[in-house]
Each structure stands twice: as C-alpha cells, then as structure tokens.
Write a structure and sequence with these properties.
Elements lengths: L12 H13 L5 E5 L9 E6 L3 E8 L2 E6 L10 H10 L4 E10 L7 H5 L6 E12 L8 H12 L7 E3 L2 E2 L3 H11 L3 E6 L7 E10 L2 E12 L6 E10 L2 E8 L5 H12 L13 H4 L3 E2 L5 E6 L1 E3 L2 E3 L2 E5 L21
Parallel strand pairs: 1-10, 6-7
Antiparallel strand pairs: 2-8, 2-9, 3-4, 3-5, 5-6, 9-10, 11-12, 11-14, 11-15, 12-13, 15-18, 16-17
Organism: Pendulispora brunnea
Catalytic activity: ATP + (deoxyribonucleotide)n-3'-hydroxyl + 5'-phospho-(deoxyribonucleotide)m = (deoxyribonucleotide)n+m + AMP + diphosphate
GO molecular function: ligase activity
C-alpha cells in the first residue's frame, strides 16, 4: 500500500511567505456536492463530468505552488507533476478548485491508476472552479468564475492542467454517455450560484453506480493462503464505527497480499466496530481502523453489500470520516 501523506498541513519555507495571504483569505474548505437521484432540469443547471480522483485546492502565485486536500493536508509532494505544471503557468495570485486524476490512454480518469502510479499513469489536474484571482471570486456568479478559469488555464486535455468542460443537451443522455465512457457520473451546478464551502444543494452529483468510502476494520483471509479474501468494512454512526459489510472483488493478487501485510501490522484481538454478524466473527482477522477504501456496490441489505467491488485506497480520509452517503430528497428539483 502506498504511504499516506503527512497528516498535518505544512507549507514549505519557500512558499510560506508568498502564499500566506492566499491561505488566510481562502481556507482549504471546498464546496461539496449533494447526492441526488433525479436529474435536474437543464433550464437552471449546468452539467460537468464527475472526475474520479483526489479533490485538491491549488494555491498559486508565480513560482510558488501549494496543493491542499479538503482535510487541509499539504499534498504538493505527492503530485510533483501537477505542481510543476502549475508552476510553469506562472499564475498570478490564484486559488483553483479541482481534481487530481490519473487517466488511461483514452483520457478517462481511473481511480485504480491513481493508486498504482509506478506503472507510469499520466497525472492531470482538472480545474472546475476559480476561487481567487487577485481578488476573492467566491461571491461572484458561477458563470463569471468559469469564464475567468477558462481564460486562465484553457481546455487542452493533452496538458497536465486544464479546465473541465460544461456539457450541453439532455442531462439524462449526458449521464448515460458519461457512464458508458467510464466516468463516475456527472455534477449539476445551479446557474448564477455563489461558491459556498461545505455541503451545498447548488451542486448536485449523480453517480453511475453506488460508491462509498469505508473504514477497514480487518479482513477474512482467502482459503489456503495468508492474503485478503475480503476486506471487512465499517462506517461511523455517532462516535463509533459500525460494521457495514465486506468486499472481496476488484483486487489484484499483489494487492491481496499487500493489504494483508499492512493490516497484520496493526492487528487487534476484538472487533473495532459494533454490530458485526456472528458468521464474520468466526473467520475475521481484526485490525486497528487506519485505512479507508472506496467501494462500488449494487445495494446494501441486512448489513451486507451486494455485488461490491474494491476501487482503491483513499489516503485523503480517515475511517471516522466515513458515513453512509444518502441522497437528499430535497436535492432533486424539477
């Protein structure tokens, strides 16, 4: 498993003075989309592809660059290709909001490639909003921010840094085509809306399949081997972790062995989550909750996930960040 980045945000000495004014003016708290089930009307909404990667705010001032996660962690050293590409643009006092992704040969973001960058996957930074350019733009309408962003970085998808593209037409068809191409889904953004840090109903996300982050509390070993047969998963409910199911597909042979080694280093005797089924108790190897994984699944029933598949490790979150993501019925406007 890849080493998680540092758990505290540290700005390198060379960037501290140059970027202090931007960090003070625009804290690294991005706007988050609310999960919706129905597609809102195109008369009041703009649509963008949903990219599958790590959410990053990019603080730029000429040669000084800082990449900050949504948990206020410094990830500049994790993505040097992106930092160097932003540095080469020599952007004047700007804060961009976007996603760092690893793309395949067809330019489609693949989260598993982001986990295994030793294979040479191309990293890109897809910017979809501009929060500061010489002044605070968060109170400017969405369309104004988008125009400024596109002028700043352009749309060339062959570059390492580029602006996302708004899709036009029937949103149901856009979602269908996005799913067929391999994207995670689409994001609908309300026209004329301002940038509001935190969860918002002016940004809605529609997914191609159910996807969720889970804390890992242990594993069931594969029969006849000391490797992961299935990861045991949990989510936070209140101040405790609760068993949420398991996933046993989507791993490479190497990942099964590597995950087992990492989890074995932090073994515990008792299950670190509540409500574990009796049949799981008899076969599980428990581990201190430290790891977060992303899993796709069809549905959940009686504490288990149906047709689940491992998608990758989320080094940007902790197990206590993981709660069930439930669609908001009030976030489905006509």
């Amino acid at each position: 498993m890849r080493r998680p980045p540092a758990r505290t945000a540290k700005v390198s000495p060379g960037n501290a003075e140059a970027l202090a004014h931007l960090l003070g003016a625009v804290p690294p708290e991005p706007q988050l989309a609310t999960l919706a089930e129905s597609v809102p009307s195109p008369s009041r909404w703009r649509y963008e592809l949903k990219f599958d990667g790590y959410r990053i705010l990019a603080y730029c001032d000429r040669g000084h660059i800082l990449l900050m996660s949504r948990r206020a962690l410094d990830w500049t050293g994790e993505f040097p290709e992106v930092a160097n590409a932003l540095r080469a643009l020599r952007l004047p006092a700007s804060v961009l909001d976007g996603e760092v992704c690893a793309v395949d040969e067809g330019g489609i973001p693949r989260f598993n490639l982001l986990q295994n960058r030793a294979g040479g996957a191309r990293l890109v930074y897809v910017a979809f909003d501009l929060l500061w350019r010489r002044e605070d733009l968060r109170r400017a309408p969405l369309e104004e921010r988008r125009r400024a962003l596109e002028k700043l970085v352009g749309h060339d998808a062959a570059s390492t840094v580029f602006a996302s593209t708004s899709a036009e037409g029937d949103p149901r068809e856009i979602l269908r085509l996005a799913c067929r191409a391999g994207y995670e889904g689409i994001v609908a953004k309300q026209q004329g809306s301002l940038y509001s840090p935190g969860r918002s109903r002016t940004w809605l996300k529609l997914k191609c399949s159910k996807r969720q982050e889970f804390g890992v509390i242990g594993y069931v070993p594969m029969v006849g081997g000391k490797v992961v047969g299935a990861l045991l998963l949990a989510v936070r409910e209140g101040d405790r972790l609760v068993y949420a199911g398991r996933t046993g597909t989507g791993f490479t042979t190497a990942q099964r062995a590597e995950l087992a080694r990492g989890l074995d280093r932090h073994r515990v005797e008792e299950p670190p989550a509540a409500d574990v089924p009796r049949d799981v108790l008899s076969t599980a190897i428990w581990s201190k909750p430290r790891l977060v994984v992303e899993v796709a699944y069809l549905e959940r029933t009686k504490g288990e996930l149906r047709h689940s598949s491992f998608k990758g490790i989320r080094a940007d979150k902790t197990p206590m960040d993981c709660t069930w993501e439930i669609s908001d019925p009030n976030a489905n406007p006509s």
